[in-house]
Design a protein that fits this description.
heterodimer; A: Jelly Rolls; 5-stranded antiparallel beta sheet; about 35% strand; elongated; B: Jelly Rolls; 3-stranded antiparallel beta sheet
């Protein structure tokens, strides 16, 4: 069984941001030489998500507004976590809704996706270096 | 390392629906001949979920009401996605709460599930062909 590991690094210039990372994961897969297996892609920080959905701008705006409604950033003082000089309690909650990771099947050397599936990195507490892990196993 | 792949196809006759797919996944596992490994089961569409929970009709109604509160489908208050003509923005959000996939351990040729764990397919935008992917790796 082969395995492959790579970290992807980001530094989003705003508090929140969404990036389509499918091409980067596809490159990892190509480099790995793995033809059949599983590919784990996860956020290595606890205030960001990796998830799969549609690459459509209106929907991305919907996600942003919906998450702000479910777990608003402000007022920061209402969160206990923020009493420790942090202001990112909402980021921990938002990422719990969107998820930490995806696992994608690898079939014939490709990500085994439905038509509209794309992998996204969703930053909820940006303006610093954050990373995503890609781990692929198989033959 | 062995690998096995199968797609399940569904056409749910209403907008929403819940199907217990545990037996179909067990059948796939039996076909695979794999005794030890991991089994990924994921929705291949971005408006449906695969998750594990209790197979109980009342719990399904609870999920329906709760998800409608979390991500309402209200024509008076349209989502940004609706500018593309799609009216299923809430389906994308609901599926984000419930999740895309599960990974189940395979032990002694069986799905290593707790007593009440059942694998469920949750449709949020039905009335058309939708697929679920099963990918099993191991030995």
């Amino acid at each position: 069984m082969k395995s492959f590991r790579k970290e992807l690094w980001f530094n989003i210039p705003q508090r929140r941001g969404l990036i389509n990372i499918t091409p980067q994961v596809e490159e990892c897969l190509a480099e790995s030489g793995i033809m059949e297996g599983l590919c784990l892609v996860n956020s290595m920080n606890i205030t960001a998500s990796v998830f799969i959905n549609d690459d459509e701008r209106g929907l991305h705006q919907d996600f942003e507004e919906w998450l702000e409604w479910l777990a608003p950033h402000a007022p920061t003082e209402k969160y206990l976590h923020n009493r420790t000089m942090e202001d990112n309690a909402d980021a921990h909650l938002k990422r719990t809704i969107m998820g930490r990771e995806v696992v994608v099947a690898i079939t014939k050397g490709k990500l085994d996706f439905g038509t509209w599936e794309q992998i996204f990195y969703f930053e909820f507490d940006g303006r610093r270096r954050k990373h995503v892990l890609v781990k692929i196993i198989g033959d | 390392m062995k690998s096995f792949r199968k797609e399940l196809l569904f056409v749910i006759p209403e907008q929403h629906g819940l199907i217990n797919i545990t037996e179909q996944v067990q059948d796939a596992l039996a076909s695979s001949g794999i005794q030890e490994g991991l089994c990924l089961v994921n929705a291949m569409h971005i408006t449906a979920s695969v998750f594990i929970n209790d197979d109980d009709k009342n719990l399904y109604l609870d999920f329906e009401e709760w998800l409608d509160r979390l991500a309402p489908n209200d024509p008076e208050n349209p989502y940004h996605l609706s500018h593309t003509g799609e009216l299923n923005a809430d389906s994308h959000l609901k599926r984000s709460v419930i999740g895309r996939e599960v990974i189940v351990a395979i032990t002694d040729g069986k799905l290593d599930l707790g007593t009440w764990e059942q694998i469920l397919y949750y449709e949020f935008d039905g009335r058309r062909k939708k697929n679920v992917l099963i990918k099993i790796i191991g030995e």
